[in-house]
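Hey team,

Filing this mostly as a record. A colleague (T.K.) asked me to run one chain through the structure pipeline before their review meeting, and I want the input and output archived in the tracker in case anyone asks later how it was produced. No errors, nothing strange. Just documentation.

Input sequence:
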Amino acid sequence: MSAGGPITGGCRCGAVRYAADGEPWNRTVCHCADCRGATGAPMVGWITVRRDACRFAAGSPVWHRSSPRAERAFCPTCGTPLAYRADALPDEIDLTLASLDDPERYPPHDHVWVSRRLSWVALPEGLPAYPTARDDA
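Output structure:
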């Protein structure tokens, strides 16, 4: 469990809730076309937690294969994007920052896939910005 207690969040309508223990890593904002297309947003904030430490405490999200390499979860009632699971990273799950109960608790540490960012999105000063995935840098 993290120093501030479990990480909690859920969808806009409250039908799906989740909780995760431990400290997140990869606190990032992604500008890739897949994230934009899956959310309808110009970019998506994520935190990564251990998959075995994350549980859906109320309701069940719908999981769908969003690409050949990953699946995404959303609320079946209101459609809020909630999570992302990459096949190549079976021990990890990413949670959308905006679905956290307290998104201010985990500000992003970097931006990824900025080579795909929309031209009118300005990046803040002081955060690393990677052209593709962080691991490709």
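Quick notes for T.K.: The radius of gyration is 14 Å. The first helix runs from residue 33 to 39.
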